[in-house]
Specification:
Elements: H1 2-28, E1 40-45, H2 48-51, H3 55-65, E2 70-75, H4 82-87, H5 89-97, E3 102-105, H6 115-135, E4 139-143, H7 160-178, E5 181-183, H8 185-195, H9 211-226, H10 241-255
Parallel strand pairs: 1-2, 1-3, 3-4, 4-5
């Protein structure tokens, strides 16, 4: 009987926690756009680096905690490249289906780090998508991603730092050619790692982001899009206060202090 009572108590507590979390999610949700109210509309085109932990929703909730309304949408199937996005009828439909302020384009994680892959896959994809995005009267943003935790030794990048430098070079070159702004998420990860006190940013696979990694990415996007530091914003539900503040301040230091470096207005 005692064990049964204990199990019932656990179930009641779990139900209460689930109810409380659902209520919290509802309260912190960005209410989106309404007529006559200033709102920022962002479409994400990427893959699992965007969809894992739902980066677009994380950004929207963070933005709402800073007083910014957002309307977001995403097309981010796992493993997709920018050439996949370019050839997809759904991409064209999404671009034409709403009036976007920004469209984020994110390449597969390894392609930007290798020159031959850039030339054959990434750059044609970026050029085609940027043309489509600008034709839809939106502003393209390049999502500079993070490197693998162990680098990519098979392709001459023996560690994380060397692979991050190669990824940065890949995005910088096409950004300069097309005059497209960059959102420096990968460089913000590098700053965080170099501090030596960062919360874990990678999952066990050494590639995909943890909740902290996605939160840092959202903070960088917040800084890039709104031109404001996210430091002090109260929405960080799965991250302790001290860690959240470090992530927020690192994002601001990367994307706010050197906006011209990333082509940000």
């Amino acid at each position: 009987m005692t064990r049964l009572r204990w199990l019932l108590a656990v179930l009641v507590a779990a139900g209460a926690c689930a109810t409380a979390f659902a209520a919290y999610q509802h309260v912190t949700a960005n209410p989106g756009c309404e007529a006559g109210v200033r709102c920022t509309r962002v479409l994400f085109l990427g893959n699992s680096y965007t969809s894992v932990n739902d980066l677009p929703d994380t950004l929207a909730r963070l933005a709402w905690s800073g007083g910014h309304r957002m309307e977001i949408s995403a097309q981010a199937p796992g493993g997709w490249t920018l050439l996949d996005q370019l050839s997809s009828p759904d991409t064209a439909r999404l671009l034409k289906g709403a009036r976007w302020d920004y469209v984020v384009i994110q390449e597969q994680s390894e392609i930007p780090s290798v020159e031959s892959f850039r030339q054959s896959e990434m750059y044609p994809g970026v050029r085609g998508l940027v043309t489509m995005i600008r034709s839809a009267s939106a502003t393209p943003l390049l999502f500079v991603t993070w490197a693998h935790r162990a680098g990519w030794p098979q392709n001459g990048m023996p560690d994380y730092t060397s692979m991050q430098a190669a990824i940065d070079d890949g995005y910088r070159a096409i950004a300069a050619e097309l005059h497209v702004a960059m959102v420096p998420v990968g460089p913000a990860w590098l700053q965080m790692v170099n501090q030596g006190s960062s919360p874990g940013l990678w999952q066990d696979d050494g590639s995909h982001p943890t909740g902290s990694g996605t939160y840092l990415a959202a903070c960088v996007f917040y800084t890039a899009i709104f031109g404001q530091s996210p430091a002090g914003l109260g929405w960080h539900p799965w991250i302790w206060g001290g860690d959240a503040e470090r992530l927020q301040r690192t994002a601001a230091a990367t994307a706010l202090d050197d906006r011209a470096e990333w082509g940000l207005p």
